[in-house]
Amino acid sequence: LGGSGARAGEARRLKLSTPLNVSELLLNAAEEILEGEDDEAKSEVAIAAGVKTQMDNYKAEMIADAATQRAAAREVVSSAVKRAENIVDESLRLSNAASLFSTYILGSGSSGVMTQYKTNVLGDSEQQLKSAVQEFSAWLKRNNDAQIKAYTQAVEDRGFETSLVRLAAEWEDDEEVEASSKAAMSVATGFDHVAAAQMLDEAIRGAVNSTVGSAAGAFFIAFVATGYLNSLTEDVLVYALAAAGAYVSVLALPLKRSETKAKIRRVAETFLKELEETMEKQCTREVSQVAQSVATLVAPWEASARAEAARVDECITKRRSLAKSLDEIKRDVANL
């Protein structure tokens, strides 16, 4: 019986060895295939999920690069400010003292500042500023459109339909761009040049009035002082000192330039601050909108990639379970 049992066990082992070996080969082949699918699925998930990081980086880069774009608008305004300062330098000269006194104190004729502002300061600056703002908006649109196009192509290459999402994104982006561009252009064209020219004229007038007031004040004090003096010599000395003070006041006329130019720079800086803040908001708003549109575009791709990764992971778990069961069967067969 013992011999018969041993032979029977050997026969069973031989009979089962073929299907067991085939099962092992199949499981090994499945492992190799699943490892490849797992690498591919994980890579696809990483690429799809990485789009958010890429768009965050794009947003940061665009906001940083926008400063360079805004510099073009600042340069236009800065050049106009320099030309306005040249008017101040040319006007507040000692050689012009008589003309300034005649114009601003006696009121004999126009100062010509309004004409100089229109010709020398304004010139084509307004058009240059418009062009700078338009180019900024066009730069934003070019880059944002390129992002939408690139990610749309990537999603379509993987077999996903994007037409509805793309149309919605384009429609929203067009509305956003139009509103943002209008806001920046409104600031750029809303500067009151008439008021600026009047301010420049009044600033020069103020400098002249201050100078004349100081000189007149010196003689007034001298006049009052002579009422308390008892000799002609003392009177002459007081008036001489008053004349010297008045002369110093006139000599100080060029020093008024810095005060007048400071007023010009403050007005220009206020305008630039509003314009640059509006352009910065435009950049942030439009780039954020594009990032949202891209996120909507890639959402089905990422969801599909994650689902595929989960499927492959489940298959790997099942294969491991089958491999474990096969090992147990092989041990049982070996004990027959």
What does it look like?
With 336 residues, the protein is an all-alpha fold. The protein contains 8 helices and no strands. It has helices at residues 2-91, 97-105, 113-122, 125-157, 163-189, 193-226, 232-251, 256-334. Helix 1 (2-91) packs antiparallel against helix 8 (256-334). The longest helix is centred in the first third of the chain and has 90 residues, at 2-91. The chain is rod-shaped. Residues 215-224 and 241-248 have low confidence and may be disordered.
Instruction: Tell me the series of helices and strands, N- to C-terminal.
Output: HHHHHHHH
The percentage of residues in β strands lies in under 5%
Give the total of beta strands.
0
Distance between the termini: 15 Å
Structural class: mainly alpha
Counting H and I runs of at least 4 residues, what is the number of helices?
A: 8
**What is the average per-residue confidence, as pLDDT, rounded to a whole number?**
77
Largest sheet report: none
Helix percentage: over 70%
Radius of gyration: 42 Å
Give unreliable regions as ranges.
215-224, 241-248
* General shape: rod-shaped
Which key phrases capture this entry?
336 residues, mainly alpha, rod-shaped
